[in-house]
TrEMBL record:
It comes from Rhodotorula toruloides (strain NP11) (Yeast). Belongs to the tellurite-resistance/dicarboxylate transporter (TDT) family. The chain crosses the membrane at residues 44-66, 78-97, 117-138, 150-172, 184-210, 222-241, 253-274, 304-323. It comes from the Eukaryota. It is found in: Cell membrane. InterPro entries: SLAC1/Mae1/Ssu1/TehA, Sulfite_efflux_TDT, Voltage-dep_anion_channel_sf. GO terms for molecular function: sulfite transmembrane transporter activity. This is Sulfite efflux pump SSU1. GO terms for cellular component: plasma membrane.
């Protein structure tokens, strides 16, 4: 049977050398302050981007609880409390200035074949905060909260695109992989799925925006959704990897569930965009083209086109969902 060893997840050499320096600084002194400082520096040193998975889990929990159809008194308040906790955690993670204290670790992390992949968790965790900002603040109070959510979404979309392009670039040009499929990891999906999540968030944000901004957001979100076919290609590699080298080790078996997120989020994103587009067209009588292509056609044509797109999208979403 072929080997089932997974890609190494050890810390980069730069982290290990700095860790030894911190240990040396802490030794030889009995003062508690020095020990605490060295211990804190060590924890900051080993604070990797994978910690933003916490924001992903906490954020989606708040979203699900807030929109749960089987509600009870106080459930939405619980969801809001979890959302605020997520904001606090996200802010705390940002304040941990790992790369300011240890600047050499940044390049080491980007060159690391595993740690760099978890950069995709940053915009995905941030997207959950944007979603709840729409659900809680924008829908209740409108006004500036709508524009805040829209601005945050643009930031999230930009970061997602940068990571979705930048991390694969390092995978192609800098990461060292053995010439075997055994090094193919489901974590390769993390940076690719980030624009997909931003696409779904764009559909949620567009629902509360004025018509012109909503059209722009929907169009850009459809462009972000193009990461889904790339994710499907990676799933093909993962299938081949498991067929040849069998399933990963027990300690990493959870990673085989990552394709479920790509499929589920992809189905939700395209369905949400089609639904918001249809509602927008019904309200304004103008499709996503802004009346440039369909403006000279009989009244109701735009709504008919939007309805046809929505019907086709339901089929596509079902296929992607079934794939997951």
């Amino acid at each position: 049977m072929a080997s089932t060893a997974a890609p190494t997840t050890r810390a980069p050499a730069e982290e290990l050398s700095i860790d030894e320096e911190i240990t040396a600084d802490g030794n030889g002194s009995n003062e508690g302050r020095v020990r605490f400082a060295s211990g804190l520096r060590r924890r900051i040193l080993h604070f990797t981007p994978s910690w933003f998975v916490v924001n992903m889990g906490t954020g989606i929990s708040s979203i699900l609880l807030y929109n749960l159809p089987y509600s009870f008194n106080g459930l939405k308040e619980i969801a809001i409390a979890i959302w605020l906790l997520n904001v606090v955690l996200f802010s705390l993670f940002l304040l941990i200035a790992r790369y300011c204290i240890f600047p050499t670790v940044l390049s080491a992390m980007l060159y690391h074949p595993v740690q760099s992949l978890f950069l995709g968790c940053f915009p995905m965790g941030f997207a959950t905060i944007v979603n709840m900002t729409v659900f809680v603040a924008a829908e209740r109070w409108g006004g500036r909260w709508i524009w805040l959510a829209w601005s945050l979404w643009w930031v999230d979309a930009a970061i997602s695109v940068i990571i979705a392009i930048g991390v694969p670039f390092f995978v192609f040009t800098r990461h060292q992989h053995a010439s075997t499929l055994n090094t193919v990891s489901p974590a390769w999906l993390l940076p690719i799925v980030a624009p997909n999540v931003a696409s779904a968030t764009g559909g949620i944000v567009a629902a509360v925006l004025p018509p012109s901004q909503a059209r722009l957001t929907i169009v850009v979100s459809y462009m972000l959704w193009s990461s889904v076919p790339v994710a499907v290609m990676i799933m093909g590699l993962l299938y081949l990897r498991m067929a040849v080298h069998k399933i990963p080790l027990a300690t990493e078996i959870f990673s085989v569930l990552l394709p479920l997120g790509a499929c589920g989020q992809g189905a939700f994103a395209i369905l949400q965009l089609a639904e918001v587009s249809l509602e927008h067209t019904k309200a304004t009588g103008v499709w996503l083209d802004g009346g440039r292509m369909l403006g000279n056609l009989p009244a109701g044509t735009a709504e008919l086109v939007a309805s046809a797109v929505w019907a086709g999208t339901v089929c596509i979403a079902l296929v992607i969902w079934a794939l997951g």
